[in-house]
Amino acid sequence: MQIRDLIKSALVSLLVLLVASCSSSPEKAAESSVSSKVPTTKSTQSKPTAWQQAYQEPQETSPNAPRKTVEKSPSSEPITDVWDRIRDGFVISDYQQLHPDSERHLRWFVDHPEYVARVVERARPYLHHIVEEVQKRDMPMEIVLLPVVESGFKPYAYSKSHAAGLWQFIPGTGKVYGLQQNWWYDGRRDVIQSTRAALDYLEKLHNDFGDWQLALAAYNCGEGTVGRAIKRNQAKGKATDFWSLDLPSETSAYVPKLMAVSHMVKYPERYDLSLSPVDNKPYLTTVNIGSQIDLAKAATMAGLSKDELFILNPAFNRWATAPEGPHVLVLPLTKVEQFKRALAEMPAQNRVKWARHKIQRGESLSVIASHYATTVSVIKKANNLQSNNIRAGSHLLIPASPAQSATLAANEATKNSNDSAQKKTYTVKAGDTWWDIARKYDTDVPTLTQWNKQSNHAVLQPGQTLVIWTNDVQRKSVNYTIRDGDSLWGISRKFNVSVAQVREWNGLSDRTLLQPGQNLTLYLDET
Prior knowledge:
hydrolase, hydrolase activity, acting on glycosyl bonds, mainly alpha, two-stranded antiparallel sheet, Transglycosylase_SLT_dom_1, single chain, 8 strands, 21 helices, Membrane-bound lytic murein transglycosylase D, Transglyc_AS, Membrane-bound Lytic Murein Transglycosylase D, Chain A
């Protein structure tokens, strides 16, 4: 009986415990149910955007919503290739399945691997900086690839609609986002400033529309066009996502093309494509030089070719930085100390070449400024002139461009058979740019445009004839065997020549892919 009483007592105690447990579980279950529905973003909900309030129905979380930063565990392997950072940051789509419109663009890229290789090489000096800026703002990494669609990562790209630079800003939008544009400098081509402006604009568009695909569409065709398309669909009871909108044909192709590029970057091995690694470390930085400087001198001081300097500083329209600024150069990190030492040793008055001009009867400041590829305001400031009045027989100090010096030297060469300078003509072909032609003839865009009395904004026409001044330089030939991981960009930097020269010397087209073991012939200055 005692055992039976003990068992009975134990059962009663257990029953009491179970009842107590059940009485508290609904509350905990409710807590669990509520917490499972709370978004994993910050507890403070952001206000609906203007466009969401006007045109969009409330939506559940979507792949286009702002992404939550994911911290990697300390044990994660460090990322050494920028491409891996880009892949890890894709959020607009998972890219497992592409929209048919994107598949068409993907097929084109897969069928043109040589084009992909060229774009990768052009992107190389800028890629780490853009990735850093996008990540700082917690924006989708797809945006890093937008210049592939906009400009093919050509820093001097210039469209018929007057859009310029990697991010293809038109003049008006560029000014709205703080990009200076004047005779000396075009901020739309400034790699640092245009990237900042593009991300500012895209953030604004995303705040307006609450969706990254719509923001990208608006970047292409304008927020008004996208807003009206949303309004039309709302009036008809239709969906308002990007794929459902009736947009201009260029915009309808624009977002799918970026999705195709992103898919290709995420899964290159599926298509036998090779994206040459880009070091996951800073490549470039800015240096404040404080005053105007001759860009050819700056290149020499930094140990760079003019070609390399202009690749990083495509915003400068002329032979020197702007007299009134910005006085900032973009340089490779590895060249900064050398440049700063040379700058410190150079007297300020030697940063720009000066000419002493004797005023001739009938000359005006505008005529003299045109002759020396400068502006009236620069001449007035250099000579402390309060008005445009000048007197024949007086002298002016004028900052003289290398282009002007080269032209004068070449003119003298036609009178002196001992001089090696030669005048050539070049007939513009379809697709040519000032940048391409300048590289072909081992010069720079400001010099080439000065020879032809053109602005580098001028649109070249097929059949147009350009004047080219060349100097025959004694060179020695060097054979170079290509190794794994080599690129034309890297080889040209190593031997201080341009990519265009390497191609020309070896009969390589833009589509030629380098193979390990292949031999190249390089012609190097003997000096």
